[in-house]
Design brief:
heterodimer; A: mainly alpha; MetI-like fold; B: mainly alpha; 13 helices; phosphate transport (chain B); transport (chain B); MetI-like (chain B); phosphate transmembrane transporter activity (chain B); MetI-like_sf (chain B)
Chain lengths: 309, 310
């Protein structure tokens, strides 16, 4: 009997010890998560403290200047908007088309497999390498120069894998029955895809596009590599004209700057006042990307839940 | 018996096998294929450009000098073209980043996959995604103007530009990538393996360490490799916070340049097309691409194996 209680006590001790490890692991997990949260709070807080006083209406409507107190981000946010227009116009059709092909059309053969491996690999190529590609291909070989068009196309190539992967995932979640129903009514493959598959997966595709564009807004390195200027005190010609044909594409070939480059330029200056400007630009940049990412997360969680196949 | 209407026996013209309609389908398929094939074209364009410019570079600079010279001063009169200082900067900053990202990423993944209640996981995952979405130039600002001054209170000799704070911030930036992929790998381990372990009297921690992690090992390894590849290719944090002097150093508290920093630094100046400076950034880029390619292929092989486990 004595032996028995001893071993029960021993087992109890072992259980307590193991439970202690369990608790330690739990605490470690919470602490690790808290460190990530605290870092974000510190990052956001330091931006708010340094940059908030600079965020006024004038900050958005002034050109950069040698005097920090009157410098603004007008040319930067206009440049970012125009570059994003080009990026979306190039990346969305190409990415969705590639995703549709790989998911709906692609036969199982070597070429398809090569394309698939390629897409995965491209997602892992450092962004600055895309900058070098753009410098050689767009700026010099195609003669686009250091223009909005070259920058937009560069970022489009960069986010193409994101759009492709998101499109494929969205399409994969649509049941085969939908396609069979369309075929049964005599629809062709493209009619099925264009009238059913793409519209039903639109929420998922849109999520991928938003995440891709949020990434593109913050990308700095590839734009620096193609030689974007850091000091721009003019705006490109307006895309909307008063006279026929009302739309102008002259802005595509214009020099430009974007938000992250403007911020980088201000960080690199020794005067503290410019660093407050950098913080303000960073704050605008964070808020823009957080809103976009938040929108994508919202779309993923709420729009998809409503669909019941 | 009712008479079958003639229309059913002879379908309307629009439904008969129609060459125009067939042709349209073929053209659309071809266009979609071209869009998909573009990714292969991009890859070849990258490889072609980097190699062709590097070949011109290596006509000026012997490969042996490139690999062994301990100085990287391509734009000085006394030009040296040794990649080692840039490599050492890249390796040191990546090691610091990984020393943060891998353990913290793994612990967060274990917590989220094995310990966290449903609600915590649902909130934490999107939050970590937001953290991964913050532009890198903002992290650079944070490293230079928040982390470095903070570290200087502990290490008073720390220079304003150093690899340590750049690496630390880079590590925190990479945590979400590592934790989310690791968690995906751990969650795909079938429930019955865990249940078997619990039935044997194992605790959650024991189950996580001895059952779930070994079962998802190749997925976890793939996540680590993705983290390494990110750290090696990361640009703006090091460009802002680590300084831009190519020093052959092994001490993270010193300023140094990485491969990516050098490319940014040279691109900021006015670089004439075809000059030796222009070619050096392609040679540096080729080195970087080869480095990340090795990691990407490793990660791909591991992911492929990991998919076939169950």
């Amino acid at each position: 009997m004595m032996d028995n209680t001893d071993s029960v006590d021993e087992i109890r001790a072992i259980i307590t010890r193991h439970k202690r490890w369990d608790l330690l692991a739990l605490i470690a997990g919470i602490i690790a998560l808290m460190i990530a949260v605290l870092t974000f709070i510190a990052l956001f807080g330091s931006m708010v403290i340094d940059g908030m006083p600079r965020i006024t209406l004038e900050f958005f409507t002034s050109f950069p200047s040698r005097k920090p107190e009157i410098a603004g981000i007008l040319s930067a946010w206009v440049g970012t908007t125009l570059v994003m227009l080009v990026t979306a116009a190039a990346a969305v059709p190409l990415g969705v088309a590639a995703g549709v092909y790989l998911e709906e059309y692609a036969p199982k053969n070597l070429i398809t497999e090569i394309i698939e491996i390629n897409v995965t690999n491209l997602a892992g190529v450092p962004s600055i390498i895309y900058g070098l590609l753009a410098l050689g291909l767009f700026v010099y070989q195609m003669g686009l120069g250091q223009s909005i068009l070259a920058a937009g196309l560069t970022l489009a190539l960069l986010i193409l894998p994101i759009v492709i992967v998101a499109t494929r995932e969205a399409i994969r979640s649509i049941p085969v029955a939908i396609r069979e129903g369309a075929y049964a009514l005599g629809a062709t493959k493209w009619q099925t895809v264009a009238d059913h598959v793409i519209p039903y997966s639109a929420a998922g595709i849109l999520t991928g596009i938003i995440i891709g564009l949020a990434r593109a807004i913050g990308e700095t390195a590839p734009i620096i590599t193609i030689g974007a200027l850091t000091f721009i005190a003019f705006l490109p010609p307006s895309p909307v004209q008063e006279q026929f044909p009302f739309l102008s594409f002259d802005w595509l070939m214009d020099p430009f700057t974007v938000m992250p480059i403007q911020m980088f330029n201000w960080i690199s200056r020794p005067q503290e006042a410019f660093q407050h400007n950098a913080a303000a630009a960073g704050l605008v940049l964070i808020i823009m990307t957080v809103i976009m990412n938040g929108l994508a997360i919202y779309l993923r969680y709420h729009l998809r839940k409503k669909i019941k196949w | 018996m009712a008479k079958i209407p003639a229309a059913i026996n002879t379908p309307p013209k629009s439904l008969r096998h129609n060459h125009k309609r067939h042709l349209k389908e073929r053209i659309i398929e071809l266009l979609l294929f071209l869009a998909a094939f573009l990714s292969v074209f991009i890859t070849f364009a990258i490889i072609y450009l980097l190699i062709s410019e590097s070949l011109v570079f290596f006509k000026h600079v012997p490969l042996w000098d490139f690999l062994t010279d301990t100085q990287w001063t391509p734009l000085f009169d006394d030009a040296h073209y040794g990649i080692l200082p840039l490599l050492s900067g890249t390796v040191i900053s990546s090691l610091v980043a990984l020393a943060i990202a891998l353990p913290f990423g793994t612990i967060i993944a274990i917590y989220l996959s094995e310990f966290a209640p449903f609600l915590v996981r649902e909130i934490a995952k999107p939050f970590l995604e937001l953290l991964g979405g913050v532009p890198t130039v903002v992290y650079g600002y944070f490293a230079l103007l928040f982390v470095t001054p903070l570290l200087q209170t502990i290490l008073p000799d720390l220079p304003g530009f150093n690899l340590l704070s750049a690496g630390l911030v880079m590590g925190i930036m990479i945590i979400p990538y590592v934790s989310s992929m690791t968690e995906d790998a751990m969650r795909s381990v079938p429930m019955h393996l865990r249940e078997g372990s619990y039935a044997m009297g194992a605790t959650r921690f024991q189950t996580a360490i001895t059952v779930v992690m070994p079962a998802s090992l190749s997925g976890i390894a793939a996540a680590y490799i993705l983290g390494i590849s990110r750290a090696v290719g990361e640009t703006m944090v090091v460009a802002i916070a680590a300084g831009m002097q190519p020093n052959l150093v092994w001490n993270p508290t010193e300023p140094a340049a990485t491969i990516t920093t050098y490319i940014v630094q040279v691109s900021l100046g006015d670089l004439p097309h075809g000059s030796i400076g222009y070619q050096t950034i392609f040679a540096a880029g080729l080195t970087l691409l080869l480095l990340t390619l090795v990691f990407n292929i490793l990660g791909h092989l591991l992911r492929k194996r990991f998919r076939e486990v169950y």
